[in-house]
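> tool_call: predict_assembly(chains=four)
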Amino acid sequence: MTQADDPAAQDEAGPASLSRREAGKAERRARIIHAARELIRETGNAGLSMRVLAARAGVSLATPYNLFGSKRAIVLALLQDVRDFHDRFAHLRATDPLERIFTAVDIQIEIYLADPKLYKTMWAAVFDTSDDLRATLWNPRRDAFWRGLIAEAAEAGAVAAEISQDWLQRQLDHVFRCIMLDWVVGILPPDAVAPAARHGYALILKGACTPEWRGPLHARVLEGQARLETLQAVRAMPLRRGDGKSG
Amino acid sequence: MTQADDPAAQDEAGPASLSRREAGKAERRARIIHAARELIRETGNAGLSMRVLAARAGVSLATPYNLFGSKRAIVLALLQDVRDFHDRFAHLRATDPLERIFTAVDIQIEIYLADPKLYKTMWAAVFDTSDDLRATLWNPRRDAFWRGLIAEAAEAGAVAAEISQDWLQRQLDHVFRCIMLDWVVGILPPDAVAPAARHGYALILKGACTPEWRGPLHARVLEGQARLETLQAVRAMPLRRGDGKSG
DNA sequence: CTCGTTGCTGAAACTCGTTATAAGAATCTC
DNA sequence: GAGATTCTTATAACGAGTTTCAGCAACGAG
């Protein structure tokens, strides 16, 4: 749907300065990434074996290891170009600084849920504790983005001055990550992801806000609860199995 | 499938009621669990291979798979007997219903941090998304315990009536789990785990509490921040400076 | 005691991620 | 263009988790 095969999307600077050797490597890298995305989309998490990936990318088995280091690094490399998110967020104008935070969360979740096979695999790689690749994910840009949103909210007087913005962001991130994890393993159904995230964010932000913002945030908490309960009620309804897919 | 549902398999209190066959299985199970704990304590996460484990437990390689199903199931089985926690918590008397919640968190963290090798491995297994074993961890007892604490707090008028206790508990759990994850992968140093958890819990509970409890919870948020900043300051201090407690 | 069942053993095999190694091709340097 | 460097390729191998299967010992019931 997005730029699935866009090899030029990853080099941001000097295209002419690349030696031929480096250009070859970059092209092989792109082929591997492309093949990985395809394979994950086709067969899901389990379908991505390094041997199949190498064959699909038209390289030897050793090459992905030379260029990326490990399978997990390849999967995490897919996460890099989520700049789609920043584009979509840049187009957004909201006066309410807290509204901006909630919208950012929504956009992010929408992107992930639109391609479950791919992003479930990627988030599973995020929660992999085996090797030491967290620096890849702890993107400074991503961090800076959220910290900026919180700083804006603080400047607007929504977040209390004595609250540590760094730790506020971390706690929000905890909620987000665990909700993603629950989605990946199937505890949380897709349509509950956004409400659950909004509920958690509202709860934490309500704990960190100035008195005059308590009302709106409390309303958001209740709204999140209401949506979640509606979903659970629908799901608990047993016999209403009217999802006959014809064709 | 075969057995797979033997609720009190590890309980050695009732030997008479078990048939000899079941007793043998239970004893093998216990040996495997024991060997697993030993091996993890000795060599850490990576040192636990199924072949070594089987040899140490004095069983064949196939037996752990017969009795548990997978390596991950064995590691998660270690998590079952944290009844140590319930014992320690039962001895505790606190009038403040929120104080009880924070103390429960502290006790739990204390148990985990006291045996890092073992519990880092176990928590890593919790975050493993490969197979479908979440039911093992989503212990109904554990859930009921926390839900009970929150219900007590609600009865005492600390948690607002219109707040969903189920989702409040889930959001608290999100913070707890992600903090554990950050500890496992090394993002969060051991001495920051408890303050970070208290900070997150205070923030969320403050977002869910009744007006009269805002003050104490706000104080807890600030206290958590202060402890975290102290730790960061200590850590940022280069070591050539006299580290001793200069009076 | 006898027979059928249960389930462990031992060994082999399979898949997967990862590494090692030798050979050879492409690229850079002069 | 010749030599040196760098990287890919092909293939084998290792160790890991997991499965399979024949053989056999222990167990439960009659």
